[in-house]
């Protein structure tokens, strides 16, 4: 009987030790989990932004107070960033401990609508015009049937070409209802159809052939240059 009691005691002791070890492991896991979750954000790397400042992006992502690194949701940051009209797409990644890497694909300012004084971006978003951006003004109404295509094709123009445009006028002809007249900053005019709008990217190449004279470049009909008549 004594031997049986000794075996039972040993089993109970071993069970107690096993439970104790299990509890200690749980406590250690909990301790390290708490330590891990309390690691603060140590650094933020931002790429791709030109319009929005780093400070504005950090504020949009709600990282200004450098919150706990692992308890901060990257998906929520992405949604907050993409709620801004200037952000077409945001990618947020965790790097090594404490570091967030944010990449921004920004919307490009294209023109200002004269009738509403709103700034139109290449993602079709419209924001209040605060005169921060040097872009042309669209001085009249563009029909809804071609407006979206107009914005899309304007977004394909080089930035330095957009800088050279002062005003844009929707000016359909009897042959084409998608013709536009571009008033250039240098005083020249350009007529162009919507389908050939990308040809305006060659303005810098064509300019020397104008020989310093002012006139109209007819990209809508053969691409010839006609000097303004003297009054």
Structure write-up:
- By secondary structure, the protein is an alpha/beta fold.
- It folds into 3 domains: 1-37; 43-106, membrane protein fhac (Ubiquitin-like (UB roll), Roll); 109-227, Rossmann fold (3-Layer(aba) Sandwich), CATH 3.40.50.
- The chain contains 6 helices and 12 strands.
- The protein has helices at residues 2-37, 54-60, 74-82, 144-154, 159-163, 203-206; strands spanning 43-47, 87-94, 99-106, 109-113, 118-121, 126-128, 137-138, 165-170, 179-184, 189-193, 215-218, 224-227.
- A 9-stranded mixed sheet has the order 6-5-4-7-8-9-10-11-12. Strands 1-3-2 form a 3-stranded mixed sheet, covered by helices on one side.
- Strand 4 and strand 5 (118-121) form a beta hairpin.
- The mean pLDDT is 87.
């Amino acid at each position: 009987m004594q031997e049986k009691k000794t075996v039972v005691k040993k089993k109970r002791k071993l069970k107690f030790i096993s439970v104790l070890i299990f509890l200690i492991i749980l406590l250690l896991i909990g301790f390290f989990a708490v330590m891990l979750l309390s690691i603060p954000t140590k650094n933020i790397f931002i790429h791709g932004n030109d319009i929005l400042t780093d400070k504005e992006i950090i504020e949009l992502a709600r990282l200004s107070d450098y919150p706990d690194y692992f308890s901060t949701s990257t998906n929520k940051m992405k949604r907050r960033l993409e709620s801004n009209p200037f952000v077409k797409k945001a990618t947020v990644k965790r790097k090594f401990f404490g570091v967030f890497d944010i990449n921004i694909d920004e919307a490009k300012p294209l023109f200002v609508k004269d009738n509403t004084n709103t700034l139109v971006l290449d993602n079709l978003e419209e924001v209040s015009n605060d005169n921060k951006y040097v872009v042309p003004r669209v001085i009249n109404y563009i029909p809804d049937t071609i407006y979206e295509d107009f914005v899309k094709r304007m977004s394909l123009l080089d930035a330095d070409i957009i800088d050279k445009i002062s005003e844009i006028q929707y000016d359909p002809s009897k042959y084409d209802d998608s013709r536009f007249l571009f008033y250039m900053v240098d005083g020249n005019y350009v007529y162009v159809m919507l389908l050939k709008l990308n040809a305006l990217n060659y303005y810098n190449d064509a300019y020397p052939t104008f020989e310093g004279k002012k006139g109209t470049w007819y990209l809508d009909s053969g691409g010839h240059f006609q000097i303004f008549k003297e009054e």
